[in-house]
Amino acid sequence: MTKTVHETAARALRDAYSGGAIAPLRQWLEPTDIDGAYAVQEINTRFWVDKGRRIVGRKAGLTAKAVQAQLGVDQPDFGVLFDDMEIKDGGTLDPTRALQPKAEAEIAFVLGKDLPSPDTTPDEVAEAVATVHAAIEIVDSRIADWKIAFADTVADNGSSAFYVLAKEGKPLPGLDIWSAGMVMEINGQIVSLGVGAAALGHPLNAAAWLAQTLAKRGEPLKAGDVLLAGALGLMVTMTPGDHVRAVVGGIGEVSFTYGKAI
């Protein structure tokens, strides 16, 4: 019975991509049902992989304590990054591909080594990082009006949509990613400010949490994976035609255009 409920919730979320946002998942999941929410996410991950989408990494979400408190949880969450979710740096996102998107600036890592241990430490993550990038995550929700509880966002693949990585990455040694300041602009106007420490106290903490969590699930992070370490500032709603640019001090800048409506 539980499996049938999870399958039904997963189908409702998949249908929302083309059919429009749906009500919160209360008829299938309690707001803090962590196991059920990840079961729904896993059903859809398998569905999309079977349809030919390729997993290229993971994203950490709910890395800010204030957001955790708002949703009544005490831990981050994660979602899957697929190959077709990447928007090239300086590229354009067609608004018809999104429902109610918001942009948030992040620090991203590309791994050069596998992270198979459920006890992975931030220092071990640092040793495995090949490059560090400024990034923008375009989050979206298949839940109407973003009226999400923890179970809603987890089941909905961490409220994921797209991401943009700066073309140029930098090696981690010598970078101060803890106190690195972030500025995000839309059409030249500052809309969000933040700092590396906003991501679970340090971006490497968020990456270590991801590595530990996924290793325990039997899905360890691997060389080549992209890791989005969590928002450094507020997420901001976009309007078709907006140009979004984020600068992370000492790391680089990244941008894209939320293209005009067709």
Task: Walk me through the structure.
The chain has 262 residues and is α+β, with helices and mostly antiparallel strands. It has six helices and twelve strands. The chain has helices at 2-19, 34-50, 65-71, 122-128, 150-155, 203-216; strands spanning 55-61, 77-82, 91-93, 102-111, 129-139, 162-165, 181-186, 189-195, 226-231, 236-237, 243-248, 252-258. The strands form two sheets. Strands 1, 2, 4, 5, 6, 9 and 10 form a seven-stranded mixed beta sheet that branches. A hairpin with a 2-residue loop joins strand 7 and strand 8 (189-195). Helix 1 packs across helix 2 (34-50) and helix 4 packs across helix 6 (203-216).
Salient structural properties:
262 residues, 29% strand, globular, 12 strands, alpha+beta
Question: Brief description of this entry?
Answer:
The chain is of the alpha+beta class. The protein is 26% helix and 29% strand. A hairpin with a 2-residue loop joins strand 7 (181-186) and strand 8 (189-195).
Q: Tell me the number of helical segments per DSSP (H or I, 4 or more residues long).
A: 6
Coarse shape: globular
Radius of gyration: 17 Å
Main sheet properties: 7 strands, mixed
Report the β-strand fraction as a percent range. Answer: 25-35%
The number of strands is 12
Structural class: alpha+beta
Give the helices and strands, then pairings.
Elements: H1 2-19, H2 34-50, E1 55-61, H3 65-71, E2 77-82, E3 91-93, E4 102-111, H4 122-128, E5 129-139, H5 150-155, E6 162-165, E7 181-186, E8 189-195, H6 203-216, E9 226-231, E10 236-237, E11 243-248, E12 252-258
Parallel strand pairs: 1-9, 3-12
Antiparallel strand pairs: 1-2, 4-5, 4-9, 4-10, 5-6, 7-8, 7-11, 11-12
Helix pairs in contact: 1-2, 4-6
